[in-house]
Amino acid sequence: MRCKSLEIVLIGSNFLHERLPNDVDIVGFENLRLLGIATCQLTGQLPMWLSMLKKLEILALNGNRITGSIPGWLSTLPRLRSLQLSHNLISGEFPKELCALPALVSAQVYQRDNDSLLLPIYYLENNELRQYSSLSYFYPRLSLDNNSLSGSIPIEIGRLKLLRALHLGHNSFTGNIPDQISELTNLEELDLSANQLSGEIPASLARLHFLATFSVANNNLHGRIPSGTQLQGFDTSTYEGNLRLCGTPLPRCDHTTNGNEDKDIQNEKDGRTTPWFHITAMFGFITGFWAVCGPLALNRNWRDSYFRYLNNLKDQLYGAFAVSLAKRR
């Protein structure tokens, strides 16, 4: 197949349930700039022939059933600035090589051709048909959400300075949110929701002044949401599902502290913690008992004097009671 002049291929929602072609003999697409084969339920792995598309800027393969891992050779595509692989069955880790995509690292890596198109293209996005007259409307993004990716988010991600959208939600990422994300100062969209991320939200994320959408919901995060920043301007759904996270817009952190104290009390009742109060009370009782009775048991003279005193006290009380009873009669 030879289509040397072809720049745009948009064939989404077709070829349903077929397999991605993996024929390495596919040639003739050296001028291809946009390849969109989304929502086709295509199977297979990312084919090697994609590495030959050196002018490719936008690769949209979201909404398929692609398996395997994300290949590191994608970083050899010098112009790739929009990679959309969401809603697939991709597994493995986030490849560090992906953090070296030249078109997302520096604007000076290459000089882009004229982005304007001879004819407008129509692109279905979020169930809305949109018309584009330039490829510049497809802003730099990595959309890897709704897959089965695991491992930690690499700290090298801070190299992608030109990135404007990072979607990693609904995967199985673990570890902390890397501070280096704060170096992506052009970010407008950041989705880390529905993973297994732990630790605190880095205060450095406050440097992301252009965030329009943000979510870390349904992770294992804890601590205070960085105060005095735009991160507190998002609603509670941004942070829900993190039981130990506190601070605006969630309840105040002292509420969380009180809740932990209540939990400790309940744990004591359930026998899961040491009952120090009861131990202390018992120790005090034993000490007081032997402080009084110990000398009586060890010293006979004191013991005789003590019981003689009790007998005298008994006689006095009995005499006082008898006199009081006689007067009433």
From TrEMBL:
Show the stretches that span the lipid bilayer: 276-298
The record's InterPro entries line, in alphabetical order, gives:
Leu-rich_rpt, Leu-rich_rpt_typical-subtyp, LRR_dom_sf, RLP23-like
Protein's UniProt keywords contain Iron: no
| UniProt-listed PROSITE patterns | LRR
Alphabetically ordered keywords of this record: Cell membrane, Glycoprotein, Leucine-rich repeat, Membrane, Receptor, Repeat, Signal, Transmembrane, Transmembrane helix
Main subcellular location of this protein, as a coarse class? membrane
Q: Where in the cell is it found?
A: Cell membrane
For whether the record's keyword set contains Cell cycle, the answer is no
Tell me a GO cellular component. plasma membrane
An example of a Pfam family matching this protein is LRR_1
What's its membrane topology?
Answer: Single-pass type I membrane protein
Q: Which domain of life is it from?
A: Eukaryota
Family from the record: Belongs to the RLP family.
List the protein's name: Receptor-like protein 2
Its taxonomic placement starts with:
Eukaryota, Viridiplantae, Streptophyta, Embryophyta, Tracheophyta
